[in-house]
Amino acid sequence: MTLKKALNNIPYLECLSRISKESDIRLWLVGGFLRDVFLRKKKELLDFDFCVERKTFSFVHTFRKYVKAKAIVLDEKQKSYRVIVKRKGKVYTYDFTQLRGKDLREDLLLRDFTINTLAVDISTYPESRIIDLWGAKKDLLHKCIRALSEKVIVDDPLRILRAFSLSGAYGFKIDKNTEKFLVKHKALLKRVSKERINEELFKILSLPSSYPTIKMMSQLRIIDEIIPYITVQRNVFQGDYHHLDVWGHALETLLRFELMLKNRISKDKKLFDYLYAPITSKHRLVDIIKLACLLHDAGKPFAKKIKDKKTIFHTHEKIGRDLMEDVYRRLKLSQKEKEVLKRLIFWHLRPGYLADQCYPSKRAVYRFFRDTASEGVAVILLSLADWRATRGPLTDSKKRRRHERIMFKLIDYYFKEKNKKPLPKLIDGFDIMRRFKLGPSPIIGKILGKVKEEQALGKVRTRQEALRLARRMVESKK
């Protein structure tokens, strides 16, 4: 897309140009929009960043009245504002920040990376031309992430993570001097707000292939600064079933999961829709599974024991689940994301136990999906990636093939059952309390759960059979 065509696609750009001329306040379009236009990215560009020479609030107020939208204060100190415009079913974001320094050159020098320093003078629209003061075009052509200075990293340490999210998103290499700045100041990430860390981390995890980026962050020990319980996983060796230490295995699990996404899951619409459905307003299930890949064995360093010359990690899944309370706070996850992450980590061994049988019983399958709830398929996929990442000398190829076969049968079973009509409710808690003269107590829930299980297995079909089962359970408690 040419610059002229791209600018013409920005709604109300002519209005912005007119406000600039009439108020004698210069306005520049800067940053990511122009970077993506230069790279000819085939995506819809809906977010625009503007630099305002002076009187930013007045400028924004005039614009927002014209487009009949509200202005949001992003940073009062930096005089940064946002106007969100809904037009023809699309949502456009206009961000305005006041010029820092005495001129545009100084302002651009304070930005993060050279590739984000392209600018266009909107005051001259429609005759606007690209302004390149700091070698952005050269670095874009050479696919290079280069910090404008060491100072810009110190001023905003989140840029350490942004270097990696940009590198992953565009397939660019990080300049060697810039890499040194990132490593030198990685400890400063501790002073960045948890919300901003969360946003940048999930930009990386949401990449189709986040593994190369996470691996690079691991090699530089930067990932340790933002995700808890990674450092303790390093150099924890696991015995002859594994060919890697705990952290190396976690990285390999992420790689295997993303290869499944690319090679098999992308061709299965049911699985794809399941994984890419949002579980919160910001993140998808697939992103949380990737985080679980990195943390599914976080409990192992705390559970490791040597017994009869064998390395064992009994209860590491329980320890790992409990550690996620701390991860939840430190990564500012939502309550829902925390619960999903805990369930994935706690149950990630269960599919392997199911695969120890030629084929698990109907009761075992029922109880697995009962316990894992809507995350059952996610747990299975984590287990598959976990097994594929385990290639020590004691691994059993026959057992691995059986595991794979059973796991994909279980996934098919889940979706078939999901499409069936729910079974009718035969009895409820009030029925049990009236019939057996009971008050509210935990046994009511246990009876209802047992009735539901037996009904699903075809062993209870009528209300009378359900009540007989309930009677036996009540009498066994006396």
Helix content: 40-55%
For the largest beta-sheet, the strand count, sense and barrel status come to: 7 strands, mixed
Number of helices in the DSSP assignment: 25
Secondary-structure-derived class: alpha+beta
Strand content: 5-15%
Going across the biggest sheet, name each strand in turn: 3-4-5-2-1-6-7
Task: Describe the protein's topology.
Elements: H1 3-8, H2 13-23, E1 27-30, H3 32-38, E2 47-52, H4 56-67, E3 71-75, E4 80-87, E5 90-98, H5 104-109, E6 119-121, E7 130-131, H6 136-141, E8 144-145, H7 150-155, H8 158-170, E9 173-174, H9 176-184, H10 194-205, H11 211-219, H12 223-226, H13 246-263, H14 269-275, H15 285-295, H16 300-303, E10 305-307, E11 310-312, H17 316-330, H18 335-347, H19 350-354, H20 362-372, H21 376-388, H22 397-418, H23 429-436, H24 442-456, H25 463-477
Notes on the structure:
This protein is α+β, with helices and mostly antiparallel strands. The protein is 54% helix and 10% strand. The protein is built from 25 helices and eleven strands. Strand 3 and strand 4 (80-87) form a beta hairpin. Helix 13 (246-263) packs antiparallel against helix 15. It is globular, with a radius of gyration of 28 Å. The model has no long low-confidence stretch (mean pLDDT 93).
Task: Label this structure with key terms.
single chain, 478 residues, alpha+beta, 7-stranded mixed β-sheet, two-stranded parallel ribbon, 11 strands, 10% strand
